[in-house]
Amino acid sequence: MNTDARLIYITTETPQEAHTIARALVEERLAACANILAPVTSIFRWDGDIREGDETVLLAKTTSERVDALTERVINLHSYDCPCIAAFPIEGGNTSFLEWVVEEVDL
Questions:
Q1: What is the pTM of this model?
Q2: Do the beta carbons of residue 105 and residue 31 sit within 8 Å?
């Protein structure tokens, strides 16, 4: 089953930042819901150095039509210069839940 639903993976510096972003996305109907997972350990290369640190993961559920607007909103709210925002298609799952996602962000 292919759906219009998308899972957006976002990392943030703190749980508080993730909460602020998640709340804005849901209030503005850019996402139907969001989950905050903390802490996660991230290892990455930045400015030529390998770095490691704790981050918070934010998972948001939206539709393909809202991905661009959601991405722009996260960029505007985010503290990072280059925030991780990645959209993944949801290929299957609970049909009732996926329909709810679409209804919640439908303009």
A1: 0.94
A2: yes
